[in-house]
């Protein structure tokens, strides 16, 4: 029998593969330095990196509060620094300089990392990107790394990587101190490596496979107490509200304890907190499966299953829309489909049209089904509008998790409330604004029905919400319910005996617990950095936010809430003519923002000379019956007031925006939109474009040749209104169209503003731009339609509007030259 000796130690092995395995396991320790170097270079070049998941955390990085020594602004930057540190450690252990191919492997590993709170694999990245200046207790990240060798354990590896992170931060800190930088520095390294776990499941993605995420907000109790009606009770809340941490069976130090006994007034205060948070989250509702509209839900369920089963292939419904599926947009589609799944709840929850008089209670009970009734969170972010699917989200839970005295390493401690929020995914800015609304309600600067206003699907206006300071926002953990069953591993740090492998090891949980306390103390010190008011003892950070953000917001919010109440009242008038409070006798005295506009007789019908020709052309096109139809995409941002009858496949006016969007997705009827409109309202009135469009001659609007006189007159009007403005390439022409809050698609081409003006005999119809109202009737204004959210107030009468702009792709083209160029 042949034997193969090792050239280093001389030990014999039955095969060359066995010799190679021996050398790999010992990292060539028995070879001389030259042979060992060549061996390691060969191994690194040929070795396939294995997939691992890393558990790590990081402090909030706010450059305003301390010098950001490592240039980190979010979890992606922290992950990049961590991967670079791991690479440096690997090179030092090998004792070699990695060759070019190895460096490329490492660079690819950094570029391919994804994390639980990331947004790199979503088309909607700008809508769900991490809030700036926020940290994480624990975040999961996937990476490609070399396997551990030489008998080093995972615990030893974690300690060595952390030691390098600490040393890197220490060097940067010393450098800045030598430069006499007076900025405040964290007392600990801002990045903490918490765990490492091999991942056998090749398709695991830390970002896409999350079942739900949990975020905490570390809130000084001062924010909740400043608005209390009397000082004695305020002091009682601040001093006597007991410190506690809600016990969870998955916590490391879980102990079954009785809830603290509170005085009646403090107990009432806690109950009020709970009720406010309960109103902000989503709820489970019961609907009747016999409802006619249930067929719509069933069809959508089939659509979702088909899309999931076929992968990149297209289902029939998506083929009709020409929608392509690939690996980069599948995650975005999943978010949209999740929203569509719940889109008909409001329709389903109504009573069935034909009830059976002799049906049994048991049968009726079996026909019921439970659904998660999602809410629209478009008012809690600046990135998503009400007509977009991503606004339709779920918030599983919002609750008071703990009250702690922080910082623990200080003799001067204050109470902090830990709020916990769990959801499938959080929109950018959502957590800050939810906490801001919670504080506004608890401090009674706004009435309780503001919640109805901010979540009302039908209300066609944008409602501002106050963002709480970003300092308190911390990513707590991410859960992978489905993937844990597939991988037989615990993938979020918690106590669990379900599987032996994972982040349920005591050593990992101790690391997470220690880092959690470090983050809590750090944030508490940052809250206290500006000190307290010597006269009343209030936290300066809270006092500043209250006076500069909350109170100014509340003044405007109360006006918006009154507008909403009057709008809601007007809806009742349109529905059944019966309201609880009488309406004013003279409609001319009503504010257009009420949703009931003044009588058209109150308007001067005269037309300024500059607008006469354009208005005549508009009326002629209107009377000709040739007004072009509105595209489905544009109709989705219009308010509809139409009516219709028939089944869900017919072109009906949608009862809710959610159902309208769903009908648009699955419609099989040839029509321009999921909506139908009464003439003179919404999309039936029409919106089309003239001039140049991106894409060249093939994309030239047909209206150019249909209405040449109108086109020329409209472009000439721009020059009369703004002679110093660079002539635009394109005009959007609207007739009796009321738009929901939206931003224009695309981007401007060297022209950052749009120009808009209203024409006709109408009342109301003001343009709202980021909450500021403008009367545009024969008064042109400029605004940034691509970045600023804008919408139309309700109106009555004949209303036309022209919007001049130059989209990206139309650089150097002037609509005023169309007639000269002969391109009609």
Describe the structure.
This protein is α+β, with helices and mostly antiparallel strands and about 800 residues long. The protein folds into five domains: about 1-45, no CATH class; about 50-210 and about 480-530, no CATH class; about 215-255 and about 265-280 and about 375-480 and about 530-585, Pseudouridine synthase I, catalytic domain, C-terminal subdomain (Alpha-Beta Plaits); about 290-355 and about 360-370 and about 645-675, no CATH class; about 600-640 and about 680-820, Jelly Rolls (Sandwich), CATH 2.60.120. Strands 3, 4, 5, 6, 7, 8, 13, 14 and 15 form a nine-stranded mixed beta sheet that branches. Strands 18-19-27-20-24 form a five-stranded antiparallel beta sheet, with helices on one face. Strand 13 (about 395-405) and strand 14 form a beta hairpin. About 35% of the residues are buried. Residues about 290-335, about 340-355, about 575-595, about 640-655 and about 665-685 have low confidence and may be disordered.
CATH topology of the largest domain: Alpha-Beta Plaits
Largest sheet: 9 strands, mixed
Measured distance between first and last alpha carbons: 91 Å
What structural class do the secondary elements suggest? alpha+beta
Q: How many structurally independent domains? A: 5
Total of helices: 26
Query: Using DSSP, what is the number of strands?
Result: 27
Task: Report the mean per-residue pLDDT as an integer.
Answer: 77
Which superfamily, in CATH terms, is the homologous superfamily of the largest domain? Pseudouridine synthase I, catalytic domain, C-terminal subdomain
General shape: globular
The helix content is: 25-40%
Are there runs of 5+ residues with pLDDT below 50, and where?
Answer: 291-333, 339-357, 577-595, 641-655, 666-684
Name of the CATH first level of the largest domain: Alpha Beta
Radius of gyration of CA atoms, rounded to a whole number: 31 Å
Query: What portion of residues belong to β-strands?
Result: 15-25%
- CATH architecture name of the largest domain: 2-Layer Sandwich
């Amino acid at each position: 029998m042949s034997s193969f000796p090792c050239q280093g130690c001389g030990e014999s092995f039955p095969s060359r593969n066995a010799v190679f395995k021996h050398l790999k396991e010992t990292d060539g320790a028995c070879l001389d330095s030259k042979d060992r170097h060549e061996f390691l270079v060969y191994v690194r070049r040929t070795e396939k990196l294995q997939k691992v998941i890393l558990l790590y955390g990081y402090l909030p990085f706010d450059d305003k509060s301390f010098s950001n020594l490592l240039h980190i602004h979010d979890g992606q930057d922290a992950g990049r620094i961590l991967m670079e540190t791991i690479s440096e450690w690997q090179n030092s252990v090998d004792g070699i300089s990695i060759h070019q191919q190895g460096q490329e492997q490492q660079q690819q590993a950094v570029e391919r990392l994804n994390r639980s709170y990331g947004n790199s694999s979503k088309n909607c990245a700008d809508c769900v990107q991490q809030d700036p200046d926020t940290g994480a207790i624990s975040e999961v990240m996937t990476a490609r790394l070399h396997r551990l060798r030489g008998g080093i354990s995972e615990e030893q590896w974690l300690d060595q990587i952390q030691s390098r992170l600490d040393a890197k931060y220490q060097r940067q800190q010393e450098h800045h101190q030598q430069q006499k930088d007076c900025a405040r520095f964290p007392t600990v390294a801002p990045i903490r490596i918490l765990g490492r776990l091999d991942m056998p499941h090749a398709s695991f993605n830390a970002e896409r496979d999350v079942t739900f995420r949990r975020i905490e907000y570390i809130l000084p109790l001062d924010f909740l107490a400043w608005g209390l009606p009397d000082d004695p009770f305020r002091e009682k809340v601040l001093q006597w509200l007991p410190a506690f941490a809600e016990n969870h069976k998955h916590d490391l130090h879980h102990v079954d304890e009785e809830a603290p006994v509170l005085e009646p007034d403090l107990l009432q205060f806690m109950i009020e907190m709970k009720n406010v948070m309960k109103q902000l989250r989503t709820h489970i509702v019961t609907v009747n499966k016999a409802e006619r509209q249930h067929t719509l839900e069933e069809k959508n369920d089939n659509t979702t299953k088909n899309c999931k089963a076929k992968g990149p292939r297209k289902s029939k419904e998506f083929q009709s829309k020409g929608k392509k599926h690939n690996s980069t947009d599948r995650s975005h589609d999943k978010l949209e489909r999740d929203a569509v799944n719940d889109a008909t709840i409001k329709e389903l929850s109504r009573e069935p049209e034909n009830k059976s008089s002799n049906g049994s209670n048991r049968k009726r009970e079996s026909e019921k089904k439970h659904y998660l009734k999602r809410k629209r969170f478009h008012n809690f972010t600046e990135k998503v509008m009400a007509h977009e699917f991503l606004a339709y989200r779920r918030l599983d839970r919002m609750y008071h998790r703990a009250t702690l005295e922080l910082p623990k390493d200080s003799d001067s401690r204050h109470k902090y409330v830990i709020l916990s929020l769990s959801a499938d995914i959080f929109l950018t800015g959502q957590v800050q604004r939810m906490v801001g609304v919670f504080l506004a309600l608890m401090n009674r600067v706004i009435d309780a029905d503001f919640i109805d206003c901010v979540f009302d699907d039908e209300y066609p206006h944008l409602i501002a919400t106050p963002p709480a300071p970003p300092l308190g926002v911390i990513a707590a953990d991410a859960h992978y319910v489905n993937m844990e069953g597939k991988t037989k591993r615990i993938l979020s740090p918690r106590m669990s005996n379900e599987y032996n492998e994972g982040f349920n090891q005591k050593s990992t949980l101790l690391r997470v617990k220690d880092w959690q306390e470090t983050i809590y103390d750090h944030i508490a010190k940052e809250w206290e950095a500006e000190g307290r008011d010597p006269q009343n003892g209030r936290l300066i950070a809270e006092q500043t936010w209250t006076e500069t953000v909350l109170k100014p917001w509340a003044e405007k919010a109360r006006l918006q809430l009154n507008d909403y109440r009057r709008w809601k009242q007007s809806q009742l008038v349109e529905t059944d003519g019966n309201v609880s409070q009488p309406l004013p006798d003279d409609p001319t005295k009503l504010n257009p923002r009420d949703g009931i506009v003044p009588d058209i007789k109150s308007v001067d019908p005269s037309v300024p000379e500059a607008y006469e020709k354009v208005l005549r052309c508009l009326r002629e096109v209107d009377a000709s019956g040739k007004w072009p139809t509105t595209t489905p995409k544009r109709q989705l941002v219009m308010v509809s007031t139409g009516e219709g009858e028939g089944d869900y496949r017919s072109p009906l006016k949608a009862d809710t925006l959610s159902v309208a969007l769903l009908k648009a997705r699955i419609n099989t009827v040839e029509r321009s939109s999921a909506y139908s409109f009464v003439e003179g309202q919404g999309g039936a009135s029409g919106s089309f474009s003239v001039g140049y469009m991106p894409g060249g001659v093939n994309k030239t609007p047909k209206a150019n040749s249909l209405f040449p006189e109108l086109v020329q007159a409209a472009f000439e009007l721009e020059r009369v209104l703004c002679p110093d403005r660079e002539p635009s390439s394109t005009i959007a022409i609207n007739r009796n169209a009321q738009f929901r809050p939206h931003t224009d698609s695309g981007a401007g081409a060297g022209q950052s503003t749009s120009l808009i003006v209203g024409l006709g005999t109408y009342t109301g119809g003001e343009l709202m731009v980021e909450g500021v109202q403008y009367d545009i009737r024969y008064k042109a204004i400029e605004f940034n339609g691509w970045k600023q959210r804008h919408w139309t107030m309700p109106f009555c009468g004949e209303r036309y509007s022209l919007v001049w702009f130059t989209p990206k792709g139309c650089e150097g083209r002037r609509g005023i030259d169309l007639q000269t160029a002969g391109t009609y």
